[in-house]
Amino acid sequence: MKPTPLSPAPADAAQRKAIKPVLCYPTHSLPRPDISAYRAVRDGLRLVDTITVPARDAATFSVPAGSFFRIISTEGPQVGDLNLFNQHNLNERFYTGKTRALNGTHLGLGDQLFSSFPYLRPMATITHDSLDWYGFDEFGGSVHDVIGTRCDPYTHNLLSGGGQYHHCCHSNLTRALSDASGLALHDAEPHVHDVLNVFMCTGFSRDTGQYFMKASPVRPGDYLEFFAEIDLLGCLSACPGGDCSAEHSSDSARCYPLQVEVYATAILPEGWVAPLVNAYDRSHGTGEAAQRAPGQCD
Prior knowledge:
It contains six helices and 13 strands. By secondary structure, the chain is of the alpha+beta class. Strands 2, 4, 5, 8, 9, 10 and 12 form a seven-stranded antiparallel sheet that branches. Strands 1-13-3-11-7-6 form a six-stranded antiparallel sheet. The longest helix has 13 residues, at 169-181.
């Protein structure tokens, strides 16, 4: 939030502010998926797994590379916080910051979710969004953001004067990942990362630039669908904020479960190959290649 300025504006302030912006990451050379090839195989999908994510809790699910999965609203307006991992290496996980830089603040059809350094490759591709009609509203809000981090008990403690709440999305994701991985709770927690806010409607206030939320437009039957580019371990929390129209980090909001469906496909999209880990040699200017190949597990 920008405070009331204490410094006087220079004589050329207007000229400085009038400079046109440029995109930080021009993406004309970014390899893009052939989304028509992905959508062409959707008619042959076969349901192989269904996972229910309880309200104010989280659950994990596995998706083999070359498969599809859907996050579905089933009973009422509810947002979800999504973490993704390489199923075989928890160190490779969803990187919201780079996904945001390469796609934008809110994701939709054809956008890809990228993994963390040093791997930096597509983990999943969005192949259908039943809320794509929403676009951006008059407040600058839209759905499926990669700008919020996730509600968490540490920020709640800070803002509530010491409150203890254990069903924030961060805690939900930590418990679910601990159960799925066998890691102790405190060992699982560092792997939990910034999320894709599925169905959440958010933006930045125009006057102060602050992150806002508003009632999600999601309704039962709506879904967001992905194609798994690599073997995935997903972890989804049904946010305690419900539709996030008022608050989160409490039991005040009306909440509903979410459903995850995993689908196998009869044929793979034409021309599709699983993405390799990033080809940067990791020498970082030393003139020496890294001792370890990119993507090698600990």
